[in-house]
Amino acid sequence: MFNIRKNLINFFVISYSLINLSHNNSQIAPRLNFKETEKYTAEQIVYSASRINNLEKSLEYADSYAKSIKYESDSSNYGKKNYYASFKVINQRRKDDCDGIAVAKMALLLKYDPKILIISDNYYLTESHAEAIVIKDGKYYSPGISNNRGFDSMGELVNEIALILGEPKIKYKYFFICNFDKEDLVYSDEDIKKKRIIEEYGTIQN
Question: 90: closest CA among 197, 180, 185, 194?
Answer without folding.
Answer: 185
